[in-house]
Every structure is written in C-alpha cells, then in structure tokens.
Write a structure and sequence with these properties.
154 residues; alpha+beta; 5-stranded antiparallel sheet; 4-stranded mixed sheet; 3 helices; globular
C-alpha cells in the first residue's frame, strides 16, 4: 500500500511539475510575440514564415529567410547543433546553439546572441546577422519596424 501511494505521489508531482514548467515556459513566448514587429528590406516588407520573437530587446527571425533575402544562405547542422551562414564564398559564420562561441571566416569570435533552434526553423538575432551580411539596419520605434537597406545587385 505504501509503495502504491509513493508511486502515485511521485507521478502526481512529475505531472504537476511538467505542467507548471510548460505553462511557465509558454507564457513568456506568447508575451514576447504580442507586439507585431515588421522588417523591411529596401522599402518592401519582408515576410517570415514564423513570428518574429523578441527577448531582452533582441528580435529573432528565421535564419534562412533573412540570409536568402540578403543574398546569402543559412544551413543548420543537426550533428553539431550549429548554423552556418554564408555569402558569396567570401563570408562564413558558424554559430552554435545556446553558445556565444562562433567562427567567422575560420577565426574564433564571440557573438552577442546565439541562434535558437525551434520546430522546423532556426531563429537568429536579426540586427546582428543583417549587419554581418552587409545590410544597414535602423529601427523605427513608433511603427516597430526594422529597416534594412542594402545595395541592389544587378
């Protein structure tokens, strides 16, 4: 009887703990996405497949969408849990999930915010990656719009 009661209490504690953890984790994400943030590239709105997420003042966007829009590419390596962002065979940045450690053109560096793997996508810090890929970035607080400008290549 004591074993059944102990097993039941352990199960109840685990279920309650996981529900509380899930609720605590989910709440900030929904709060983070309340404000609609826009991104424009050379005056045209850039659409992302996932919502733009902000955390501690940093906007995170879909890595592939941003890289392609700026003439680069992004690929996630599931084995090393790292993201490779490249452009024109002249630039390569490998960033690691949950780490500020990175490599830029083969040299070790620190990045301000690491990439975040989510279901079906990898999110990267918008301003940092946009600047790394050659875009000028400004933020218009009144309209919550990031404006990226880059030279148009013909």
């Amino acid at each position: 009887m004591l074993r059944k009661f102990s097993a039941w209490m352990l199960t109840a504690a685990l279920v309650t703990g996981s529900i509380a953890t899930t609720a605590a984790f989910a709440q900030p994400a929904s709060a983070q996405q309340q404000l609609k943030i826009k991104v424009e590239l050379n005056g045209k709105e850039l659409a992302f497949p996932q919502d733009i997420v902000t955390e501690n003042g940093v906007a995170y966007v879909n890595a592939s969408t941003l890289a392609l829009a700026l003439g680069g590419a992004a690929a996630w390596d599931t084995m090393t849990k790292s993201l490779l962002v490249s452009k024109d065979n002249k630039y390569g940045l490998r960033m690691y999930q949950n780490s500020t450690f990175a490599y830029k053109n083969g040299k070790e560096i620190r990045v301000p915010n690491p990439p975040r793997a989510t279901t079906g996508a990898v999110l990267v810090p918008l301003v940092y990656i946009a600047k790394e890929l050659g875009a000028n970035v400004t933020y218009e607080a009144k309209t919550r719009t990031y404006k990226l400008t880059t030279a148009v290549q013909s």
